[in-house]
TrEMBL record:
GO terms for cellular component: endoplasmic reticulum membrane. The keyword Lyase applies. Residues 486-656 form the Very-long-chain aldehyde decarbonylase CER1-like C-terminal domain. It comes from Dichanthelium oligosanthes. The chain crosses the membrane at residues 82-106, 127-148, 215-241, 360-378. Its EC number is 4.1.99.5. This is aldehyde oxygenase (deformylating).
Length: 657
């Protein structure tokens, strides 16, 4: 079939897009090709990076036009193949990223134990610049009159594969090696390569992160074997796909920070050490910067005398799990719902590094997330989600493979408690010091706020904590000192009881909304005799018509909120938070605290919390660990310890959010 030749206008549009891209990069602040055109846009950088995809307009338009003319996809069009290749390359990076951050698979084989923090995530936000630039350059080349059309090529030509391999080994590898070494010398490093090395922990996305000059060097290394094969008349469509995707695959593997090649393979075939690098090999270069410069083949480091002598010994140690360590603190969570299950570090980093919200990018993956929910229900156990370090202590978040709605299914109660119990016993066996139960994992109706497990296993070394003492403290310290009366819903719950008993001791009148006189009297009798008068039972919302301080522990509808006078502030400890229907009132957020400034490796947001902010019950567990307290914090809240825990939290640098 004859090739559809690009019109001069179409070729001009594609070439203009690529030329403008490179021209702007060359004119960006600093040295030529040292930064991307939108690098100086600050907070608008991510948005601008999304708009860069509009440069693909000419390619999409050409494919759409050909599809309209022929009624079928133009498989003979390079524009279509380049768009498909763009999607496959993005998928390659994403799959490697997901695998590398699935701590339940990879935790024991991580090369660098540190976590990826928000600073690195923001710096690498536009990692896809490399892929964008390479696609535009390829489009310009493919639309030139001298380049053969896809219809004129074979699907497969073994001669091209052999020639590309030969050119990669003899041309791309040595050329990249010497170019890379040059980038580590003098001003070239500070101007063009320091940005790439600024990422302390390599990730698959780090492989594409760098300056325009680095991108062009990688483009040349990737393109040279293809150019040679096509010039020799041995090019094929499969060679383009195979070579480019294999190139990306090896780059992502090296930067994954997870050892994927067994040390036994190198012991069995020593020559293999010089044919393919490993994540450990690359990580040594990234951190020490004076060795291991190769693209994929350590042979050239050996020939150049720049191979790091510790590469294979360290690779063996990492592969055997010797880099793993026991966490000091574990926060045991559960999944909220299907959509929020995608708000994890191993899914979309651009989503998990921001407070949870339903984003359009997540919706197409809803069926996949739903399938995972079904799978977890039948064959899954508690798994590690994320981690960070605080003052030398490793803090991890584990998740029970259960979703919020399942906690309200009576028949699921036993199975959920079993999952929580196994997690506690696993933590105890490992040597974890504190495990804090989150959200419904400490539900009173489920396990008495953790009492069930402590009673069943009296010899636990790990301390089980519900963290609600600090939750109560956060809520109480939000209340202005001049308040004399509050209206409390959820008044007989664990938190409601503690809040009521604490406030009455401050001579604050507490209107406790409850229909159960028996439960009210039980709480009232716990208060010292001289303060019992400050606890008042009410059975209707109308009783709070003149009270401007509402403490909400039970969901409120619009009708119920209407009883609050204008200017009311709603403090909350209800999950999920109430909807702010009243514009003449203010609404507090769920109790939370900001972690100390010296937290390290924190790169994901805890559900809807802002960066660096965690739920108060999480913070309560952190304080328990930092203080080294030996008691369990389960069951009813000890009112006498509310101020003790609050002061300890502030002393350790946690601050109200």
């Amino acid at each position: 079939m004859a090739r559809r030749r690009s019109s001069p206008l179409q070729r001009c549009a594609t070439a203009a897009a690529c030329s403008e891209f490179i021209r702007l990069a060359g004119q960006a602040m600093g040295s030529p090709l040292a930064s991307w055109p939108w690098a100086s846009l600050g907070s608008y950088k991510a948005r601008a990076n999304n708009y860069i995809y509009l440069l693909y307009g000419p390619l999409v338009a050409k494919v759409a036009h050909a599809w309209r003319e022929t009624g079928s996809l133009p498989l003979d069009s390079w524009c279509l193949h380049l768009l498909l290749l763009l999607a496959l390359r993005s998928l390659t990076f994403q799959l490697w990223f997901s695998y590398a951050n699935m701590l339940f698979f990879t935790r024991r084989r991580r090369v660098v134990k540190d976590g990826v923090d928000f600073r690195q995530i923001d710096a690498e936000w536009d990692w896809d610049n490399l892929v964008i630039l390479q696609t535009l350059i390829a489009a310009m080349v493919a639309n030139s009159p001298v380049f053969p059309g896809a219809a004129e090529l074979r699907a497969w030509d073994p001669r091209g594969w052999a020639l590309a391999l030969l050119l990669h080994v003899t041309l791309s590898e040595p050329a990249f090696y010497w170019a890379h070494r040059a980038l580590h010398r003098g001003p070239l490093f500070s101007q063009y390569h320091a940005k790439h090395h600024s990422s302390p922990v390599t990730q698959p996305l780090t492989a594409a992160f760098g300056t325009p000059l680095e991108a062009l060097i990688l483009t040349a290394a990737m393109a040279a074997p293809l150019a040679g094969a096509f010039a020799a008349g041995a090019g094929s469509v499969s060679l383009v796909y195979g070579h480019v995707l294999l190139f990306d695959y090896l780059r992502c593997m090296g930067y994954s920070n997870v050892e994927v090649i067994s040390h036994k393979a190198f012991a069995a075939v020593p020559a293999l050490r010089y044919l393919v690098y490993t994540p450990t090999y690359l990580s040594l270069h990234h951190r020490e910067k004076d060795s291991n410069f190769c693209l994929f083949m350590p042979l050239y480091d050996a020939l150049g005398g720049t191979i790091n002598a510790r590469s294979w010994e360290l690779q063996k140690e990492v592969d055997q799990g010797m880099n793993d360590r026991v966490p000091d603190f574990v926060f045991l969570v559960h999944v909220v719902d299907v959509v929020s299950s995608m708000h994890v570090p191993f899914a979309f980093r651009s989503c998990s590094s921001l407070p949870f919200a339903t984003r359009l990018v997540m919706l197409p993956f809803w069926p996949l997330a739903f399938a995972f929910m079904i799978l977890q229900w039948f064959c899954s156990k508690t798994f590690t989600v994320s981690f960070y370090y605080l003052r030398g202590r490793l803090h991890q978040t584990w998740s029970v493979p259960r979703y919020g709605f399942q906690y309200f299914i009576p028949s699921a109660k036993k199975g959920i408690n079993r999952q929580i119990e196994l997690a506690i016993l696993r933590a105890d066996k490992m040597g974890v010091k504190v495990i804090s139960l989150a959200a419904l994992n400490k539900n009173e109706a489920l396990n008495g706020g953790g009492t069930l497990f402590v009673s069943k296993h009296p010899n636990l070394r790990v301390r089980v904590v519900h963290g609600n003492t600090l939750t109560a403290a956060v809520i109480l310290n939000e209340i202005p000192s001049n308040v004399k009366e509050v209206f409390l819903t959820g008044a007989t719950s664990k938190l409601g009881r503690a809040i009521a008993l604490y406030l009455c001791r401050k001579k604050i009148r507490v209107l406790m909304l409850t229909l159960s006189t028996e439960r009210f009297l039980k709480i009232q009798r716990e208060a010292p005799a001289e303060f019992q008068q400050y606890l008042v039972q009410v059975t209707k919302y109308q009783a709070a018509q003149s009270c401007k301080t509402w403490i909400v522990g039970k969901w409120l509808s619009l009708r119920e909120q209407r009883w609050a006078p204008a200017g009311t502030h709603f403090h909350q400890f209800v999950v999920p938070p109430i909807i702010g229907f009243r514009r003449d009132c203010t609404y507090g957020k769920l109790a939370a605290m900001r972690l100390p400034k010296d937290v390290e490796g924190l790169g994901s947001c805890e559900y809807t919390m802002e960066r660096g902010v965690v739920h108060a019950c999480h913070a309560g567990g952190v304080v328990h660990c930092l203080e080294g307290w030996e008691h369990h914090e389960v069951g009813a809240i000890d009112v006498d310890r509310i101020d003790v825990v609050w002061k300890a939290a502030l002393r350790h640098g946690l601050t109200p959010a």
